[in-house]
Amino acid sequence: MTKLSYTLGMKVVACFIAVLSGITAFFDGIGIFLANGYDFYSSSLAELKLAHPYLDTGMLTKLYGMRGSLLPILVISLLLFAISVIYLLCAAGHRPDTDEIVPNLQDKIPLDLYFAIVCPISLAILFLILEGRNPLADTGALSFVVIGSIILAILGLATLLTCVTRLKLGRYFYQHTIAYQVIRFCWKMLAAVFSTVCDAIKSISATWKIAVAWLVISAFYTMGGFGAIVLSFALLLVFCSMASQMQELKNGGEELAKGNLNYKINTQRMFPLFRAHGKNLNSISKGFSIALEQKMKSEHLKTELITNVSHDIKTPLTSIINYVDLLKKENLDGQAAEYIEVLDRQSRRLKKLTEDLVEASKASTGNLKVQLAPTDMGELAAQAVAEYEEKLENAHLEAVINGGDTPLFAMVDGNLTWRVLSNLLSNACKYSQPHTRVYIDIKKEKDTVILSMKNISRDALNIPAEELMERFVRGDSSRHTEGSGLGLNIAQSLVGLQKGTFSLEIEGDLFKAFVTFPATEPPAPPAEEMPEEEMPTDAMPMEDMPIEEMQEETEKGE
After folding, report:
1. Helix count and strand count (H, E) for the chain
2. Transmembrane ranges (predicted)?
3. What is the pTM of this model?
4. Which of 110, 113, 121, 101 is nearest to 164 (CA)?
5. What span, in angstroms and rounded, lies between the C-alpha atoms of 344 and 351?
6. Dihedrals φ, ψ of 311, to 5°?
7. What is the SS3 assignment for 95?
8. Range with the lowest mean pLDDT among 53-62, 226-235, 244-253, 268-277?
9. Angle at 106 (CA atoms; ends 104, 108), nearest 5 degrees
10. Three-state SS for 253?
11. What structural domains does the chain harbor?
12. Helices (DSSP H) in 259-271: which residue ranges?
């Protein structure tokens, strides 16, 4: 029943019933008033015609014949009108596809216009009624009342419904009015004038010179004559110079916004006020350059520290791994074998963490060689899935590739992109719900190739997607699974180095990763080897030539 009450068809039917019943009740009430005034219930039609010869006979006859049904019609009309209006008030602003209040086209019309039309018509009808003009004698007044009542009923109902909708929306009631817009505009103008005056008072140290100059100029123009002409020419030069200096400041600000920190503004011939502003911009450029240099130095030192420390760790770590391998060959039993197994697992985990840390540092600082070439993304994804086939089986996962049948080429570095896919598949093997599928979709949109990977997480993903791409953040908050929390961060950095974009989306337990690269055309096939030119049939082999001719051919060749 709720959906039925919000449908457009029901609203139209209710509006029609409300207008028709309202007009019927209005004229029926007028009819009852006239019937009582002319004593229709105690006099015959002939007596009424003799007593009131000035009345219209046809209208008098019709009204006299309906005198007995006027009251029931009035009651039924008022009942229908009340039911339909109450229904429309409840349904105003509602739609069947949403529970929110939604304004329609008529609710966007300024409310002032409704009242500007409804009020004059209402006053005109009320004036005719209060004036006492008899509609049974004055057919012109009756026609105006009929037409005006129909228009008033339609517009009045529309005004009532839009007012109810606007009230349900709150501030919408007064915001969509011409009066509100005019008051708001005037208020903004007053606020702007007040703000300008306050700014002038605050900056009196800079504006007093302009005020004095303006008074001097006004005095010269008051005197007129040759002095005014000279002053006008001087002002033209001053204004042109000011415009040039402002343009120079504007160019300097635009260059700073573009990141050109080496741009310097020439402030030698500027007015003192503009010169101070130009020096401030130059100081900002210098400060930015110093801060950027320090940041680059810090990043370089951090990368160098990570690389050196990782290298120093790898040397003893390699020895530990080698000696653990030797101990495993001794066929130790009992707890000793378990201890060796733990040492082997944790040492290799530490080695993987060290390698990931170095790679993350290099990828984030761009210290990796990037060789972009047209690469079939479907073939690359198939190779990555084939490489991880055993790990996927151990994790009870099935990889499904969609869109790999049609070759889609992107301008990427094959080695770096394979590393990205490797990190995503490794995450899927670690964190996916067993006995589910990992979907890899490849498609082309406009000038890009999009590779997406979707899997269902085993654990609840209560971490924002942006936070998952930070360093040392893992989807497994308990940290029971192996991993460094660097895989997604490395993937994001590697994709950025290839001028692509990397993004994540989380919908409940559904994890989705999107890798976007610029699309390109397939590489041109290698050129076929040109067949060797056949020797002319009349050519003689060198060994069969006479000595003199061989010498001539050799000299020609030289």
Report:
1. 19, 7
2. 12-35, 69-90, 111-130, 142-164, 211-240
3. 0.41
4. 101
5. 11
6. -65, -40
7. strand
8. 53-62
9. 80
10. helix
11. 2-170 (no CATH), 204-367 (no CATH), 369-518 (3.30.565.10)
12. none
Residue 331, both tokens: 């066929």
Residue labelled with tokens 């402002």: 246
Segment 159-185, tens digit of pLDDT: 888 888 777 777 666 677 788 888 888
CA atoms of 397 and 432, how far apart (whole Å): 8
Find the length of the chain.
558
Beta bridge mates, 440: 401, 453
- Reported as type and span, the H/E element at residue 362 is helix 335-365
Q: Output the CA torsion sign for 403, 406, 412, 416.
A: positive
- Please name the residues in contact with 142: beta carbons below 8 A apart, sequence gap of 6 or more: 135, 136
- The residue behind tokens 């309202």 is 22
CA angle 81, 87, 88 (to 5 degrees): 90
What span, in angstroms and rounded, lies between the C-alpha atoms of 372 and 366? 15
Element (H, E) at 191: helix 178-202
| Cα 432 to Cα 207: distance, rounded to the nearest angstrom | 69
CA proximity to 380, closest of 343, 335, 419 = 419
Residue type, 384: A
Greater confidence (467 vs 256) lies with 256
pLDDT bracket for residue 454 (50, 70, 90): very high
Find tokens 């082309």 and name the residue.
444
| DSSP state letters, 480-507 | -S---S-HHHHHHHHHHHTT-EEEEEEE
Distance in Å from the first CA to the final CA of the chain:
104
